[in-house]
Design goal:
Layout (H helix, E strand, L loop, with lengths): L9 H16 L8 H30 L9 E3 L5 E3 L1 H19 L4 H4 L5 H9 L27
Antiparallel strand pairs: 1-2
Helix pairs in contact: 1-2, 2-3
Length: 152
Amino acid sequence: MPSVPKGMNPGARKVWKRLGTELLRYNLISVVYSDMFEELCETIADVKDLRHSLRARQNLLRTQGRDPMEAYEQISPNGHVQQHPRYQILKSERQMMVSLLAKFGLSPAEQAHVTTAIRAQLQLFEGEKKENDPAAAPVKPTSPRGFSDFDD
């Protein structure tokens, strides 16, 4: 597991530790991916901070007897209602987060596309076809079953 980079915000450090151990467990993280993983952790932390900020603004509006949905909008100088910049940033950061999560196979749709070294090893060393597993291919007796069966 790559070490936690210096200068990460506390929220990103928590994400690093939480997700990093799981990615390591499935052999999906190494030092070469640490920069991209750092981006993912920072983005997740930013999304959480932005969400908390908007929720705090909603709570303030509630205490003032106003509509909490005003937290997502503001009035422009020419009098038009527009999305609050913080909400625009949140939407952008969420898109980035989803994109980065997919790169590590951390969404249900992307998980099916990720093959880890652990899965490949399990398939190599599990042995004979199981009787109730129609997807498993039959093992030919003459085919190599491990590294020691290959000729030099």
